[in-house]
Amino acid sequence: MTGIRHATASAVVLDDHDRVLLIHHNKLGQWLHPGGHLDPNEDPAQAALREVREETGIEAVIVTDPLPTFTGVATLPAPLMITEMDVVDAGVGPHRHIDHVYVCRPVRGELTPQLAEVGGCQWVPIGEVATLDTPEDLPELIRYAAAWAKPRW
Length: 153
Hints:
This protein is an alpha+beta fold. Helix content is about 15%, strand content about 35%. The chain has helices spanning about 45-55, 140-150, and strands at about 5-15, 20-25, 30, 35, 60-65, 80-85, 95-110, 120-125. Strands 1, 4, 5, 6 and 7 form a five-stranded mixed sheet that branches. Strands 3-2-8 form a three-stranded antiparallel sheet, with no helix packed on it. Strand 2 and strand 3 (about 30) form a beta hairpin. The model has no long low-confidence stretch (mean pLDDT about 95).
């Protein structure tokens, strides 16, 4: 698919009990990791953390490798990966999402789903993600993120 491309950011939020934070997406009717479009003047890392907070009530921090610093230049947290996918949306029409996928840890907050956008949120054991109705690639993404994150805790 060609045409419109939207910048998005998402977060695979992992806790100390080998669980991942998932939201039930109202439009798709599937379980996903939190995420969404960037707001104006927002970088992808800020968007990922905002989406986690808005959709779930959980405050999180990004897990990343140490980044170099340079005088006069800001260094943004690096995402685990950047993906590109086709999206069909009746309101916008067919387009593509360029998604900056971050790995995060929760720091505080109680699960309080934003019911206008999500049908619920829950902590799911990583081994049980494949039993839920998710996009086909999500269980593999979560396993990859968890394996990447383990030595960085």
